[in-house]
């Protein structure tokens, strides 16, 4: 086995609770090297004799990336390892340095679109996955001290925020929140829209 | 005392739902229950809930999950997911238990003794598989008593 080097530069890319293991390819001229990935949670380390669990989707794969999101499904410290395989020859395991906890994922602000539909202030948020909730802040421009908030547990396509005064401008921004790791993203850029019609029409 | 611990019930339920039929098919003894014999968890008083929840998490972490390894990689991955979620939740529950000084009343102590007796009355693999197969009984009770 020592003939086949272990994969190097093993790392985890994690954004918005989606986690991927990546590694550098093992090059053997004229041959197709395959890889197998296994994971170990804190439970396996502490209570199951340090056992490792194979990820079947990334067993004997030729790819150098593996989606580990489904298996990193608790907020504990995980270790990952990968080895190269060529026929019956197997390399040593290459293991992630340190631990990975999903609480370390990087959270990006939600994609948001504010919409003025007549006098109605609506907001559209891009779905970020089952773990995500949203905190939407909205206010009338010039009345920044009277910000209102709406918490959204699930993303539905469009949400009604407020009924606007004719001709007035309203602003919206939002942040994503993940209850499982008790963390929030930064706020999205603020978007402002103007209600239809102008005040003089209402005065008549 | 009260212990409010945020726990990804949705994730645990999804993980269990994915393997429930498989696990329950491995439990030939349908006439016995580990968690509900002779009395249901629902009879536990609210003041004892924090303590017995912690005891049950410890029971699953220490005794149950390790004896549930199967030949099925998918099932093993879901059991790992549930086990690690229980470990994470138990840690937070333990912290809360210390802060709130959750005392174990006579009733929850008696109830937990009964659960252990039910468990030890079977061979370890059958007992572990049966206990895992009853996970939704525990989850339902926890959600109802929130």
From TrEMBL, chain B:
Keywords: Cytokine, Disulfide bond, Secreted, Signal
GO cellular component: extracellular space
Principal location: secreted
Cellular compartments annotated: Secreted
Keyword DNA repair: no
Origin: domain of life: Eukaryota
Presence of keyword Secreted: yes
Protein's recorded name: Interleukin family protein
Part of the intact protein present: 31 to 176 of 176
Cystine crosslinks: 3-96, 50-102, 51-104
Function in brief: Immune regulatory cytokine.
One MF annotation (Gene Ontology) recorded for this entry: cytokine activity
Protein family per UniProt: Belongs to the IL-10 family.
Organism field: Chloropsis cyanopogon
Lineage of origin: Eukaryota, Metazoa, Chordata, Craniata, Vertebrata
């Amino acid at each position: 086995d020592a003939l086949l080097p272990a994969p190097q530069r093993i790392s985890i890319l994690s954004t918005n609770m989606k986690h991927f293991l990546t590694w550098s390819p093992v090059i053997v001229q004229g041959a197709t090297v395959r890889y197998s990935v296994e994971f170990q949670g804190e439970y396996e380390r502490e209570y199951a004799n340090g056992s490792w669990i194979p990820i079947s989707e990334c067993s004997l794969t030729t790819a150098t990336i593996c989606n580990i999101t489904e298996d990193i499904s608790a907020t504990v410290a995980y270790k990952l390892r990968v080895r190269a395989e060529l026929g019956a020859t197997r390399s040593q395991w290459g293991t992630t340095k340190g631990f990975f906890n999903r609480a370390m994922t990087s959270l990006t602000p939600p994609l948001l679109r504010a919409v003025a539909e007549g006098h109605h202030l609506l907001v559209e948020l891009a779905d970020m996955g089952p773990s995500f909730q949203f905190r939407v802040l909205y206010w009338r421009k010039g009345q920044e001290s009277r910000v209102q908030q709406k918490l959204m547990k699930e993303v539905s396509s469009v949400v009604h925020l407020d009924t606007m005064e004719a001709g007035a401008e309203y602003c919206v921004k939002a942040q994503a929140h993940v209850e499982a790791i008790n963390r929030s993203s930064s706020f999205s850029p603020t978007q402002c829209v103007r209600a239809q019609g102008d005040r003089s029409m209402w005065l008549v | 005392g009260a212990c409010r611990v945020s726990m990804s019930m949705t994730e645990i339920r999804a993980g269990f739902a994915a393997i429930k039929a498989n696990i329950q098919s491995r439990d030939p003894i349908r006439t016995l229950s580990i968690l509900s014999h002779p009395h249901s968890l629902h009879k536990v008083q609210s003041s004892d809930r924090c303590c017995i929840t912690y005891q049950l998490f410890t029971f699953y972490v220490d005794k149950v999950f390790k004896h549930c390894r199967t030949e099925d990689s998918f099932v093993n991955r879901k059991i790992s997911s549930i086990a690690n979620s229980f470990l994470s939740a138990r840690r937070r529950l333990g912290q809360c238990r210390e802060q709130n000084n959750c005392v174990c009343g006579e009733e929850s102590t008696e109830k937990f003794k009964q659960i252990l007796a039910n468990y030890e009355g079977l061979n370890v693999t059958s007992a572990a598989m049966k206990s895992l197969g009853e996970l939704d009984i525990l989850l339902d009770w926890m959600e109802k008593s929130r």
